Amino acid sequence: QSVLTQPPSASGTPGQRVTISCSGSSSNIGSNYVYWYQQLPGTAPKLLIYRNNQRPSGVPDRFSGSKSGTSASLAISGLRSEDEADYYCAAWDDSLSGPWVFGGGTKLTVL
Amino acid sequence: QLQLQESGSGLVKPSQTLSLTCAVSGGSISSGGYSWSWIRQPPGKGLEWIGYIYHSGSTYYNPSLKSRVTISVDRSKNQFSLKLSSVTAADTAVYYCARVSGPDGMDVWGQGTTVTVSS
User: DSSP state, B55?
Assistant: First the structure.
């Protein structure tokens, strides 16, 4: 049972815009930054979004993050086949669950 | 370019201690502002944070694993290590090491190493 809640799956067709949600609580998302990681099949996770909505160098601007209250979202616009991967949200947690907590992951399928 | 590389025992017997090392290259593990973390991923499941060690040597562990985990740093070898005691089949996973750049998150990851707990 993950501290942060994500839908197990999401899908879209090439060119579409898809969003992945991440729900938490006041001790994590509500009071700390949210991070998103992309894990392509058989590879290590890669930082996609940090500090809620910042992109590391090299991450396309098709990827964007947002946060509101105790929830966060990752949006992918202009969906491409190479975006098919697992996506995880993460946050610092101020409670006994922490410090770092992850979501259970969302498998994105490009149809 | 900073790189991390995990190594260690790939097969561990139940009740024994799992030992892994993460070698840091392209940068110093003693650089201020960073912490060094371990994360694991059981087969077909999501990510679980295990713990991290600050450049100062302070450690923070996942409360659910705290009684069994030790993370340490060897500055002379520019590496940090994970020990997990009294392992069971539930500890079978791919283990990753990562650098945590403060509020900028876990920005550099190793490729991961598979550990199987089995007799």
Answer: T
Per residue in B60-93, pLDDT tens?
999 999 999 999 999 999 999 999 999 999 999 9
Nearest to A16 by CA among A100, A108, A105, A98: A108
Q: Say if A88 is an interface residue toward chain B (CB within 8 Å).
A: yes
Q: How far apart are CA B38 and CA B99, in angstroms?
A: 9
Distance from CA of A80 to the nearest CA of B (A): 23
Q: Mean pLDDT per 10-residue run, chain A (111 residues)?
A: 94 97 96 97 96 96 97 98 97 83 97 94
How far, CA to CA in Å, does B104 sit from each of A21, A35, A47, B33, B41? Answer: 20, 9, 9, 11, 22
Query: Are the beta carbons of A35 and A90 closer than 8 angstroms?
Result: yes
**Separation between Cα atoms, residue A99 and residue A16, nearest integer Å:** 35
Query: Strand ranges (DSSP E) for chain B?
Result: 3-8, 11-12, 18-25, 35-41, 48-54, 59-61, 69-74, 79-84, 93-100, 106-109, 113-117
Q: In which element (H, E) is residue A19 found?
A: strand A18-23
Report the Cα A36 to chain-centroid distance in Å. 4
With contacts defined as CB-CB under 8 Å, which chain A residues touch B37? 100
